[in-house]
Amino acid sequence: MEEVAGVDGAPAGWVVARVRPGAVRWDVVPDAAGVLAVTAGCAAVGVDIPLGVHATAGRRECDDLTARRLGKARSSVFPAPPRAVLTAPDHPAACARARALTGKAISLQTFHIAPRILDWDALPDRPGHVVEVHPELSLRTLAPDVGFASKKTARGAGQRIAALARWLDPAVALADLPSGARLDDVRDALAAAWSAQRWACGAAEVLGSELDDRGRPMFVAV
Predict the structure, then answer these.
(1) pLDDT digits (tens, 9 = 90+) for 175-213
(2) N or C: which end of the chain has fewer CB within 10 A?
(3) What CA–CA distance (Å, rounded) separates 160 from 7?
(4) What angle in degrees, to the nearest 10, is found between the helix axes of 154-164 and 135-142?
(5) Which long-range contacts (CB under 8 A, 24 or more apart) does 66-73 make?
(6) C-alpha span between 133 and 4 (Å, rounded)
(7) What does the mean pLDDT of the chain come to?
(8) Which pLDDT score is estimated for 220?
(9) Model pLDDT, residue 76
(10) 22-43 as b/e, with b when 16 or more CB fall inside 10 Å?
């Protein structure tokens, strides 16, 4: 297996898991440009953040398809609002813009991840091996027989680690975690790397087929 990477948001920026047979290397970097720098040699990179948004209106097809696949766990999907909403200075302003453009306000959680979406949206070029993923969907695809509890519970955390053990050795992956990242973050980064590995070998399922206003594809790789 070629080295692949999974990326998830962390308090200090982005936590990156670079996975190759028998080893996982961890980094915490401040921004999207830093992610691209540390993953330059990877065959594929899965990122848990919307990659590409509409300019002023419209829901992303991939968000709706991901939510549909997740079923009861669909609340883990935060649909990416238009860029005009993401650039609002505060949550009330964002809600006002969202209502004007889409007819619906955005959640506070979505507003809080706006800077992370814009971090990737601002890149002048996004390499084709960097793809959007959704860790909860990755885990459910990796372990379709598991009825996952909330990831905030001990049972849910254990289930997710056990699911990842079907792909890699948790004793190796979790042995030397970086400072600046939480357990949820590193676990989701590993799930993102699993989908990246499927993308690298041509086995990933693709949800969505739209282009953003800059001509970049918007989809979720599973």
Answers:
(1) 999 988 999 999 999 999 999 999 999 999 999 999 998
(2) N
(3) 17
(4) 60
(5) 66/134, 66/137, 66/207, 66/220, 69/137, 69/140, 69/207, 69/222, 70/134, 70/136, 70/137, 70/140, 73/136, 73/140, 73/148
(6) 13
(7) 94
(8) 97
(9) 83
(10) eebebbbbebbebbbebbeebb
DSSP output for 30-63: SSHHHHHHHTTT-S-EEESS-----SSS---HHH
Euclidean distance between CA atoms 33 and 50, whole angstroms: 16
Specify the pLDDT at position 121.
94
**What pairs with residue 218 in β-bridges?**
210
pLDDT at 125: 86
pTM: 0.95
State which amino acid sits at residue 108: L
User: For residue 216, what are the contacts with CB-CB under 8 A and spacing of at least 6?
Assistant: 51, 52, 126
Task: Report pLDDT for 33.
Answer: 97
- Residue holding tokens 């979790």? 174
CA distance 4 to 25: 10
Rg (CA), the chain: 17
State the Cα–Cα distance between residues 196 and 84, nearest whole angstrom. Answer: 30
Q: How far is 209 from 131, CA to CA, in rounded Å? A: 13
Q: Which two tokens stand for residue 104?
A: 């619906």
Please give the sequence-ordered ranges of beta strands (E in DSSP) within 39-192, or none if there are none: 45-47, 130-132
pLDDT at 114: 95
List CB contacts of 21: < 8 A, sequence separation 6 or more.
Answer: 1
Q: Taking a C-beta distance cutoff of 8 angstroms, is the pair 17, 190 a contact? A: yes
